[in-house]
Fold this sequence. Notes:
Elements: E1 5-9, E2 14-16, H1 18-23, E3 30-34, E4 38-42, E5 45-53, E6 57-61, E7 68-71, E8 77-81, E9 85-89, E10 92-94, E11 98-111, E12 114-116, E13 119-120, E14 128-137, E15 140-142, E16 145-146, E17 148-150, E18 153-155, E19 161-170
Parallel strand pairs: 3-5, 4-6, 5-7, 5-8, 6-9, 7-10, 8-11, 9-11, 10-12, 11-14, 12-15, 13-16, 14-19
Antiparallel strand pairs: 1-2, 1-4, 17-18
Amino acid sequence: TPGTGVWFDDGTVALDLTADFAAGTEESPHVALLETDGTLYVCPGTWFARVANGASVLTIQGAGVSTTALDGAFAGTVVGSGSTTLTVRDITLQHGTTGIATSGASTVTLVDSAVTGNRAESRDAVGVRMTGQLELQGSQVVDNHASHTLYSSNTCYGGGIHVRGGLVATDSLI
Length: 174
């Protein structure tokens, strides 16, 4: 087992996701559906897992950006959410078709984290794509690649960040 994953809902009820996350493979990453507000603690290791968030408030807490990763194995968005307050700390989100995507007005904060190595051929902004407020604190959104064919020409759109709202970056690399 590469580490452990524990989910605490906002009532501090713990759910051990270790077996679920450990079952994820590069061919078939685990998809964790988190529908109540809470915190997902992810211990060191590279987890072939994606998070689908149905909660209003979600925190994903890793054990260090260089030692903890959620790897989407290019099977979809690494962390996907509706309208939410999302905080990502001390973790790398990698190898998705998008690192973070929200479908509604959201507030997303990345603290000491990285969104990297994501790629897509049919959309833009594969690092972070959202509506609302994005705040980066000591984080990196780098090495994400997107291409999109428009009117029969190969037009590439940026793979980094697409925010319909606001962006604040402090001590971060984009």
